[in-house]
Every structure is written in structure tokens, then in C-alpha cells.
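dumping this here before i forget
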Amino acid sequence: MELPADGTGFQTIRASRSAHWGAPATIATVRTLAAEAHQAGLPDLYIGDISRPRGGPMPGGHFSHQLGLDADIYLDVAPKPTLTPQQRDAIEVAGLVLPDQRNVDPGRWSPAHVTLLKLAAGLANVDRILVNFAIKRQLCDEVTGDRSWLHLIRPWWGHAAHMHIRFRCPVDQLDCVQAPPPPPGDGCDATLQWWFDQLAAPAKPPGPPAKPPPLPPACKAVMDAPAVFPR
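structure:
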């Protein structure tokens, strides 16, 4: 199903990609996050890619957005006007990480980011939330009291301007293969330092562009069926 262009606490962006479709539980949970953020006093959230109308391959190498179980939520917590469709398509959201990728930008980071990420980690059926490793380290340094939710916040390349929420397989979708859970603990150990160590490692020559995995037969049948939804 499709996420509307606007709702309580959110605006979709880059609608021309037709990538705001997802499993019903995904759409409902994204709307829940936006409503909870709004209730907490945060401004509208920008919602980026979820999936295409039929799922399947996405432009730009977004291989993980094929199942309707992933959602990109931008980490911009500044007050926002209501944008026109043209403005939404052209928007560029600034990241929270300094150019050296070792720390968040202190001029942009705020307690509101902690609030938003904690709300996201508390959603039902969240498998993990990917953010830049500098954002993860900032959370490790800053969060006190209950730190159990940090378990779901996982470091990854990029992801300086948005968080990528991956939801668990719906119980009624037997063909969906659930990924192994994140490792135990809050993730603020030596495994986090590994990401920063890679910044000093010699650069590897670029390889060939990654190819999307082949579609399972059941998915191919959906993609090849007569159009019911826009492609």
C-alpha cells in the first residue's frame, strides 16, 4: 500500500521515484513514528524511499528496499514549511556528520535527534536501524540511563542524513526470510571502532558496479503481471 504524501507529522519527498509503497505494517508503523514524533514536539519528518509499487529493483542500488520492509526517515529536526511537489523532488537534506566522518557536526546535532532515534527503536517489529557510525558513536557517548534501545541502532556506511529502518518479516509472509538478529549488547564496544579504523585503511580500487540479486520466481511473476499498480 502507498504512504500518503502528507499526514500527521510527516511529508514524503522525491515522490517522482514512486517509492513510498510498502507492506501494510510498514506503512502503519511509519505513520506511528511520525505521530509519536509530532506528539513529542518534533517537526514534520521527511520520508524517503520505502519500496516501489510492486517491490522489486529500485534505482540507485537500493537493493534492500525491494520487500516493502525498509524505510528511509530523514534526521532533519529543523522546523519545516509545507513543500510543493517540485520542492520535494529537488530537496537535498544535509547530513549530521563532519566531512572526516569521525564525529557528528556539533552545530547540527541536538537532543531532538536522540529523541527521534529512541522513538524509532521503540516501534513494533523493528529489526534494526542503520545510521552512520559517527552517529552511533555520538549516541554511545551521550545516552545515559536506559541504553537497551541502542542495541537496534547499527553503524553503516553513508546514512549521515537519514536512518534506514528495517522491519521484521510479517508473520503471514512465509516466503520472507528473516535476517539474523543484531549481536547482543549496546554495540558501543570494539566492533564500533572497526568502522573508524577503516577510514585510515588504504583505499581499494573501485570494483564493477554491484548487480542486484536475481528475483525469486514468485517475485518475477508479480513484476511480469499486467499492470495493476504503476511500475
